[in-house]
Design brief:
Complex1_LYR_dom, mainly alpha, LYRM1, LYR motif-containing protein 1 isoform X6, Complex1_LYR_LYRM1
Length: 122
């Protein structure tokens, strides 16, 4: 990992913890605020710990993009959780064939950048 990439990753990590410190739940209730803050801190620690040994620059860039997208979406929608996507089970049109495998592949390809690590963790 280059020095610039390391600084960018550490900056994102610090940014998440600063956001968690200042976070207020949209409902305005203290219990919700505490739960959401705790979720943000735990999720960040878990994902950064999981990805700390990455050496491939493309994978590192994907993780940085995912982190940035999740921060921006969280700030915009005022929710710390990843926004779910809703697709019907056979809702994507495959290039050829109608098999279940092609649907699963299309689902994986159509997954937004901010949800790339969500299924691996949950």
């Amino acid at each position: 990992m280059t020095t610039a990439t390391r600084q960018e990753v550490l900056g994102l990590y610090r940014r998440i913890f600063r956001l968690a410190r200042k976070w207020q739940a949209a409902s305005g209730q203290m219990e919700d605020t505490i739960k959401e803050k705790q979720y943000m801190v735990n999720e960040a620690r878990m994902l950064f710990q999981k990805n700390k040994n990455l050496t491939d620059t493309d994978l590192i860039k994907q993780c940085i993009d995912e982190c940035t997208a999740r921060i921006e979406i969280g700030l915009h929608y005022q929710i710390p959780y990843p926004r779910p996507i809703h697709l019907p089970p056979m809702g994507l049109i495959p290039l050829r064939g109608r098999g279940l495998r092609s649907q699963e592949k299309l689902r994986k390809l159509s997954k937004p950048v901010y949800l790339q690590s969500h299924d691996e963790v949950s």
